[in-house]
Design goal:
2 copies of one chain form a homodimer. The first copy, chain A, is of the alpha/beta class and 354 residues long. Chain A contains 16 helices and 6 strands. The first copy, chain A, is globular.
Chain lengths: 354, 354
């Protein structure tokens, strides 16, 4: 970790407990039995504690889809060929991908960042940030995904996006990703961060069969051996550099930068959570800014969330990534804000209490 | 059940299996691993099967909040006084209630219907349908909530709202309710419909303590004895008339009418599900049109859902009612439609398959 990253991390403070209590008082004054809106109330209180003032807002929200390739795909860990990463970047930009359709539906901005896709530069597009650090991460089963300088650059790239988002008035960022092979990288990160076994954390990803999952678990085991020093260090940055990937490091940087800027961080599924977990290891207080969107159908995600004591909002059997679950969570957060800001109190409405 | 209701029920057909299969084919052609959007894909397929054509849509959607009082409140089953039902009707209309704020946030129409509130007529309001059948349901712990003619009128009222909604271009209705004491009525309905024990189905409602819950369970037991013939009949209409309430019967009629008109039926929480369960007992095929929004924090709701093999979308610890959970489910359904209608296929996007 370099000084620039360290400075960002130092800006992240703990959530304001007294603001949480203030929010609870406000919520209990509204025309409903106390606590009867469940997680929506928790969400409203968290958002108030992050933003420190009323009205609270999830908008404007920005979904960042970070894309990057993975050398480990050469080992056959995904049923889809590597070129799909590039093809999907084009699909995000032309609006045909799931996350594109979902963002459009609810008026959320989408930004794609090429952090490390193979195959050279893309054509220019206003929604694409071209910031390729390398033509894909190196094969983690044989050595580190990135060197430390590359990883620091990727973190700074993400953190810089958060700074610019904040300057532009954005209140929330969502972590989305695309990268053929990146469930393998995410699984390796979980094992190293939380001491989990590859066999309990590896799943079918985009659609491996049982044999494919077993192969993936073996390769994650090889990756942990090839990067044994980093894995044993317990250090978020070292683990990220060794077992992550460019898109994952960008999202970790985005999460840290967002927390430093008092933005909400919507964490999507299996891979986005792995990126967040690296940020969390670097600075546990970042969790106060995080809203965990959903539990992925990818087995192992629930275990990783549990290791951070993170309770996602949704459990819809989704396992696409891209930030699709995060968009749904943004919709829930909007309603949490609407309740907090716009409901009448018992006194205002002349409704009798208990 | 009278002939008018019987005619509505006869119009409800089973979901079109071949349309479900068609929808699956379309979903599998879109740029994502098959099935990777989980429940959103199931939802899209169900909506396509209900609507029979593309593009599919949840909108325009109408949340109906049916309000009614319950004589059983005299037995001390709610910590809130009965006048809160009326006060909340005013709050729905002036926009201060949770469901009002949530509908406004996402552009969903809200309609309130006075099916049986105590305290006389309300002032006129464009969003209020005044159709009071009685000044509250009778005390179910002493006899039937309604007579059969009153229950049939309430069903017809709800079914008529569905007819008018359909004629006005609405594609979805949501079942919302307000009625102090109505968790007691809903609990009694569940016991009668599904042979459950009052002690396993009664919960704190708006905020009873342990003693209050025990009292409520005893009173539900008394209601089942006082209406033993209806409870033993297994007949959805008889059970509804004996143990329901006006707002619950209106919602049961709305569910049947909506299904008869090929509208989606968003089923909210503990009480709305009890209303739907009566409709389901009358015509099990109505379930094909139903989208179960969430599992209530009210203990017993999960058991009742299980009895219908119904799998709600959300589990957010909510227990307010009013249709609040249903509004969130409408938001999910909109995204299911967006995916189905607007995503690119692998071919269109030039993305490689497996």
């Amino acid at each position: 970790m370099n000084d620039a990253i360290r400075k960002i991390v130092e800006r992240i403070g703990p959530l304001d407990r007294s603001a949480l209590a203030e929010a609870r008082d406000r919520l209990d004054s509204l025309t409903k039995p106390p606590g009867s809106l469940g997680r929506l109330e928790d969400l409203a209180a968290q958002i108030y504690a992050v933003q420190g003032k009323s009205p609270i807002a999830a908008d404007p929200a920005l979904v960042v889809v970070a894309a990057g390739d993975h050398g480990v795909t050469a080992r056959g860990v995904s049923p889809f060929p590597q070129e799909v990463t590039r093809q999907m970047v084009a699909n995000f930009l032309s609006g045909g991908a799931a996350v594109s359709a979902m963002c459009r539906e609810v008026g959320v901005d989408l930004m794609v960042v090429d952090a490390g896709c193979a195959g050279g530069e893309f054509a220019e597009h206003e929604k694409l940030l071209q910031a390729k650090i390398a033509e894909g991460a190196a094969d983690i089963s044989r050595g580190p995904a990135m060197n430390r300088e590359q990883c620091a650059r990727a973190l700074a790239l993400g953190a810089g996006m958060a700074d610019r988002a904040q300057a532009g008035g954005v209140r929330s960022v969502a972590l989305g990703e695309m990268g053929i092979g990146n469930t393998t990288s995410a699984a390796a990160l979980y094992c190293a961060l939380f001491g989990l076994d590859p066999r309990e954390i590896c799943g079918p990803g985009t659609g491996l069969d049982r044999e494919g999952v077993a192969l993936k678990a073996r390769i994650v085991g090889e990756a942990l051996e090839a990067n044994a020093g980093a894995a044993a260090s317990g250090d978020g940055f070292e683990i990220l550099a060794s077992l992550g990937g460019y898109e994952i490091a960008v999202l970790a940087g985005l999460a840290l930068g967002a927390a430093a800027n008092d933005l909400l961080v919507f964490v999507d599924g299996y891979i986005a959570t792995a990126a967040f977990a690296c940020a969390w290891r670097v600075k546990p207080e970042a969790k106060g800014y995080a809203i965990f969107a959903h539990t992925s159908a990818e087995p192992g995600h629930a275990k990783a969330l549990e290791a951070m004591n993170a309770k996602p909002l949704l459990d819809l059997g989704m396992r696409l990534g891209e930030g699709t679950g995060a968009v749904l969570a943004i919709q829930l957060a909007r309603q949490a804000c609407a309740i907090f800001n716009n409901m009448a109190t018992f006194e205002q409405a002349g409704v009798s209490g208990k």
